[in-house]
């Protein structure tokens, strides 16, 4: 690729376009991934936040009027300055009563409201703030009004370095991947430039052959875009050849026309051998004859010269959860029956499937008298848009939910906190995860007499 070549221009323009598109795409993907990581992190914080809200909203376990949040089951809230904190503040007390996780020690969390963070849909605030030891925290904050029981601000914070570390790792992988992709695209671009310009190179070589006399015209087939050029070049060669031929003919005719008079003049001068004038004429005529012969030979020479381009198996997840629940509830002798086809697959992450099915089975095992049944069915092309679905049904022989309770659940959507303890929070997690995957959870009456939980998820 020479400095002023068409190939270099095409290569540089394609390279610039590729780099710009990869950079824009990389920035967009990084931004989308950051949003996804933050949403996942917020869902994790949301689980802890709802746990604390449920504890605060529940009646106190003793005669005291204090509402003390129970441990949320995360060891990081117990480690000093771990980056994971919760804080419950009673706002209507004469002096604000603040209860915090052990990880906060003697410090408190800032308020997102004071930082200008607005309330999102659902009544929560979420954003970043500086915590103890200048830690960067991702915080969720929610205000709850319990009427006569008080008004509270519940806050949960997590170490934002986890988000930054995951984003940094993704960006490194993105840079390496896009770097390799850029190299491949540039190599492909070089091949395309060479392949696309090969006909032009063939024309250049053919013209060089014509100019050297190895060929007389451009031969072979050319692409439609170059065919007119080849055709006009051949026409130009033919026209130039005709011009040269006419010139050669004229020169030959002139040379022959001059040779005869010159021969006559030489013969005539030869007859006067002793005359100085005749000798002079003979001398000059010989010079003229040599010049004519030379130019004629040059005309003959001119005539002889040519011219110019995540799927999860359901079987191991359900089987493992069933065995685990049997061990957990061994003291109550709870039997968990499993019926799942071997080809059942969930279009999503394994840990999310374990979370949803685990909550349903755990809820059923808690309330079952002696038996829990899990049944999985594939539905090919039965979903929205003709997509496959997997239906997971969990039945128990416990007390179940009354029709009024099920109506309340349907009316409140994702909020099941006011149902019996031990079922509300787990079911709300299932509802949220199923909704994220475009699925749904419905509750009904089990043929076994208890509650039936029917979870529909995208299949593969």
SSE blueprint and pairings:
Layout lengths: L5 H52 L27 E6 L6 E4 L23 E7 L5 E10 L5 E9 L1 H52 L14 H44 L5 H29 L6 E3 H15 L6 E5 L5 E3 L2 H18 L3 E9 L9 E8 L6 H10 L11 H13 L3 E6 L5 E8 L2
Helix pairs in contact: 1-2, 3-4, 5-6, 6-8
Can you describe what's shown?
The chain is an alpha+beta fold and 460 residues long. It has three domains: 158 residues; 64 residues; 147 residues, Histidine kinase-like ATPase, C-terminal domain (Heat Shock Protein 90, 2-Layer Sandwich). The strands form three sheets. Strands 2-1-5-4-3 form a five-stranded antiparallel β-sheet. Strands 7-9-10-12-11 form a five-stranded mixed β-sheet. Strands 6-8 form a two-stranded antiparallel ribbon. Strand 1 and strand 2 form a beta hairpin.
| CA gyration radius, whole angstroms | 46 Å
Share of β-strand residues: 15-25%
Low-confidence stretches: 301-309, 410-425
Number of helical segments? 8
Number of strands: 12
Q: What gross morphology would you assign?
A: elongated
Distance between the termini: 49 Å
Question: What structural keywords apply?
Answer:
51% helix; elongated; 12 strands; single chain; alpha+beta; five-stranded antiparallel β-sheet; five-stranded mixed β-sheet; 8 helices
Short description:
With 460 residues, the chain is of the alpha+beta class.
């Amino acid at each position: 690729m020479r400095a002023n070549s068409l190939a270099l221009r095409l290569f540089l323009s394609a390279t610039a376009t590729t780099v710009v598109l990869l950079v824009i795409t990389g920035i967009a993907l990084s931004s989308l991934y950051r949003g996804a990581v933050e949403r996942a992190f917020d869902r994790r914080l949301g689980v802890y936040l709802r746990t604390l809200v449920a504890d605060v909203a529940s009646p106190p376990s003793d005669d005291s009027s204090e509402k003390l949040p129970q441990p949320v089951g995360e060891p990081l809230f117990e480690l000093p300055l771990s980056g994971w904190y919760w804080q419950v503040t009673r706002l209507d007390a004469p002096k604000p009563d603040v209860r915090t996780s052990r990880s906060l020690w003697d410090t408190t969390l800032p308020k997102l409201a004071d930082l200008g963070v607005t309330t999102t849909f659902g009544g929560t605030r979420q954003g970043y703030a500086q915590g103890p030891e200048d830690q960067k925290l991702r915080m969720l904050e929610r205000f709850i009004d319990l009427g006569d029981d008080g008004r509270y601000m519940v806050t949960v914070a997590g170490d934002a370095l986890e988000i930054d570390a995951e984003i940094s790792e993704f960006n490194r992988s993105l840079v390496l991947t896009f770097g390799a992709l850029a190299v491949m695209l540039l190599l492909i671009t070089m091949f395309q430039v060479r392949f696309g310009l090969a006909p032009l190179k063939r024309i250049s070589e053919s013209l060089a052959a014509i100019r050297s006399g190895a060929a007389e015209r451009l031969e072979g087939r050319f692409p439609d875009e170059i065919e007119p050029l080849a055709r006009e070049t051949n026409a130009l060669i033919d026209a130039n050849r005709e011009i040269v031929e006419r010139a050669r003919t004229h020169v030959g005719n002139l040379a022959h026309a001059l040779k005869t008079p010159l021969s006559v003049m030489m013969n005539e001068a030869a007859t006067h051998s002793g005359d100085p004038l005749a000798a002079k004429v003979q001398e000059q005529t010989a010079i003229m004859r040599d010049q004519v012969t030379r130019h004629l030979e040059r005309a003959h020479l001119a005539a002889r010269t040519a011219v110019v381009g995540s799927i999860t198996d359901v079987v191991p997840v359900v089987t493992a959860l069933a065995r685990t629940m049997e061990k957990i509830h061994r003291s109550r002798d709870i039997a968990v029956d499993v019926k799942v086809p071997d080809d059942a697959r969930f279009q999503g992450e394994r840990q999310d499937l374990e979370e949803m099915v685990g909550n349903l089975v755990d809820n059923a095992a808690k309330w079952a008298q002696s038996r829990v049944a899990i049944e999985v069915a594939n539905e090919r092309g039965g979903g929205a848009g003709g997509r496959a679905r997997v239906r997971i049904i969990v039945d128990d022989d416990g007390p179940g939910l009354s029709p009024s309770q099920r109506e309340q659940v349907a009316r409140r959507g994702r909020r099941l906190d006011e149902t019996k303890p031990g079922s509300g929070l787990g079911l709300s997690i299932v509802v949220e995860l199923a909704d994220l995957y475009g699925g749904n959870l419905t509750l009904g009456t089990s043929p076994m007499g208890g509650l039936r939980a029917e979870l529909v998820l995208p299949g593969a």
